[in-house]
Structures are given as C-alpha cells and as structure tokens.
Amino acid sequence: MTLAITSALGSWSPFPDRADVRAANELACRFAAFANGMVRWFAYLNPQNDSWEEELDRCVAEGACGVKLWISLKDPDSGSLDSVPPVLRAAGERGLPVLIHTYQRTDDNLPGEVTVAEFAELARGCPDVILIAAHSGGNWRQCLGLLRDVPNTVVDLCGGYPETGMAEALVADLGADRVLYGSDALGRSFASQIIKVTFADLSREDQERILWRNSARLLGLDDADLQHADAAASALAESPSADMPEWREDHFCFCGQWPFRSNPCASSTALETALGEAGIERAFVADAAAVFAFDVLAANRAFVASASACRRLVPLAAMVPFAPNWKSILGEAAEHFAGGIIYPFLHNWCLNEPQYEPFFETCAAFGFPLWINVATGDIRFRHRGTVCRDVSATELVGFLTTAPENDYVIQGASAALVRTCLEESPRIPRIRFDLSRLSDNSTALLEVVRDFGWERLVLGTEFPFRDLRAVRYTAATLSRA
User: Fold this and answer.
1) What local confidence, expressed as pLDDT, does residue 429 receive?
2) Torsion angles phi and psi, residue 109, rounded to 5
3) Whole-angstrom Cα distance, residue 209 to residue 173?
4) Which of 113, 126, 336, 427 has a Cα-to-Cα distance from 160 of 20 to 30 A?
C-alpha cells in the first residue's frame, strides 16, 4: 500500500460543530503533508452546519481532493435530507467526488445515517457529481440492484470482516469499473480488506481496476503521483514483527448448510478437500445444520456419521445447555465427539447465569472440552429473523473466573474482549481464543502477542463466512508488519 485517501472525523461526534470539523480537516491536511505524497485527503463536512461551504472552499485551497460525509446527513430533528444536495452540487462544481457513509443495519440506523436506497436518490438528484457509497451499505447484499441505473455512483468494499463473495457480487451487479477497494483503516487491517479483492474469483485486470486503477482515474492521479508515492513508501523504516506459528489446525469452522446463506462446502467430503487445498491438517468443525436444530441428538448423530471418513475433520457436538435433555445430549456426545460447541451469541443465553453451572460442571467431569461461540458474522447485518446478543466482557470474564477446570476455546471474540479476558482471568491456562477478529484490526494481533504470547491463540477461519485462507494470510501479513 503506497498511496491512501484519508479523512479525519474529529471527535467522532455524529453531528460535529464547526470547530470540530475544522480541527478534523486540519489534522487530515497535516497528515497528508507529513506523508510526503503517500496520502491524499477528503474534506469532512457536516451539511447541517451553516459554515459548510466556507469549510469546503478552505479545504480545496489546502489541497483536498474530495468530500467525506459521515452520519450527519439527516436533520437531527426532522430526519430531512434537504441540506445534502447543496453540498453535493457544490462538490460537483469543484470537480470533487463525494464519499458517503452508507449503512443498512438489521436494527435501526443511526439518526443521521443513510441507506444505499437513500444514497441512490441523492445521486439521482445530483447527476453531475460522482458519489461513492462507502461500505456498499455494510449489508452489501441489500445494495444489489439499487445503483445499476445510477451511473454517477460507485461503491467501495471497505469495512466489515472479509466476507466471501462480496467483490464478485458487486462486480456482477455494477461492473468492475464501479467498484473501489477501501481499507477502513485503522479500524480494519489493510490485509483483511485487500483479500476481499485478491482472494475473489475475478480476473487480474478486474482486481487491478478495483485495487487502484478506478480510484486513480476518479481522482485524476497520474503516473508521476503514483511513482512519487512508491518512492516515499520504499524509504520507510521497517516495522516491528513477530514470528507467527505455522497454523495448521482450525478451531472455528462450519460444515453443512447455514440458514440464510450458501456454503461452498456443504458436505463433509467437500470440506475435507477444501481444507487440504488450504493447507489445514485438522479442523474442529461444527455442523451448521445443528446450530438451530430442534432435535439436537439426531443432528449430532447425522453429523458424526457424515464426518467419520474424513481424516481432517474433528466434529464438535452441538450442545444446548438450556435444553431439558442436555444430559442425554452430553452423555451421547461424550462417547462420539472430541468436544462440544455452545452458542450464547446465536442462542441468546448468558454464560454466567447460575442455572447453567451444572452443565459446565458435568462437561468438566466428563473431560469434555468446549468451544464457546461468542460471535459469528456481523451482528449489525444479521437476518432480521434471528435474535442474537453481544457477549460482554463482564459476562465472559465472570464465567471464566469461576468455570470448572476444562479446556475452552473462545470463538469470535473481539480484540477488546480477548485482552480483557487475558488480563482478568490469567489463572485459567486452558483457555484459548481464536484469532479471527484480531486479524481484522491493524494493531490488535501484535499487541496481544506482545503482552500474552502466541500460546493463548489458535487459528479460526470462520468458514464459510470467510475464505479458508483469509485469517491465516491476514495474521501472517500483520505479524510481518
């Protein structure tokens, strides 16, 4: 990465005042000057401020090459978007593209936030300005079809974990010339976002368009600009690194058909082949069909039978601590499975509630390890028919500090959750965390390794939500950063 387009959001207030916006743009301008050609910047504006045009002209004079609108597009009282078109037209008159944060959350959007459908209407009303739909709405599947007939729009891929199929779907919908790479750094790691493109089933030419050619064309960057950025990047000092283990064992993987989404390896044999191609020698695998099964005993029996001939698959039994027959499920699972998996996130129950203590004590007595799923996918863009819940640090730490001695692997924990647990429950050596969420962040992985070492981490691919190669590749890239 040798040239980046950046903006600053000041205090991150949803409706920043004039001083906040000015401070943000001053920071972006200084950063671009400091970066010696590696950074260009967009002017951050709040359309609700009467001073937006004055701020825009000042930013243009200082070198801004575009406009960024975040979550202050709607009037905070009326919800009207009437303040936005004048900003868009002014940007177009100055030859500037406008990047607009777009989201379509499963739950309510933030007060000033716009969906891709609202973005499309703004674009139709201002056909002479190029508008960029940041994040492709977050829930990108609901972006498909909305912008095909709005030629002054493009989308970017940034934000969110590197979900499979995103780039291919948007290219099929809009064409490769209307899709841009974005990093969403520093909230996301560059590597986790780049692989949305480089691991996609796209031609090399289309990947190059998305990664840089489209942006260079949009911003009028020429070969001299790019060569100058390359030279500045090559002069940078090397960053600290940490040698990563050669991960060959996966602790966060699903086989079978998920509700609401496809799986390229729906059968055990297909997953066995894919794991081999990805260089994974052993995977502790949960059955997607068992996640929401009523008859868990039958689902577990079917899964262990289907996986019996697959040497790479170590099947995990679905466990339901709140089911009246949990003892029967556990008794049978302990005979046929290497461990079990529980879903406080997807099944909407709390780990540290007293009524579940007998379940955990019995698992420990059987010597039956548990994989604990605290997040799968992105809760902001789940199917509306599901009710999930965040597993808090208080809940997880409360459980871990009192849990009976057993082996526990925590799947899907955020960087903050991993750090809090390792800081507050160090007495439990037999707890490990999959590193999928750590690989999404620019700094979290190296910080955790620096403070706690690699031994508390395991590889988790989060397949099929992610490409089987994604987490290991991203973690390796970050550890060499």
Assistant:
1) 64
2) -65, 165
3) 15
4) 126
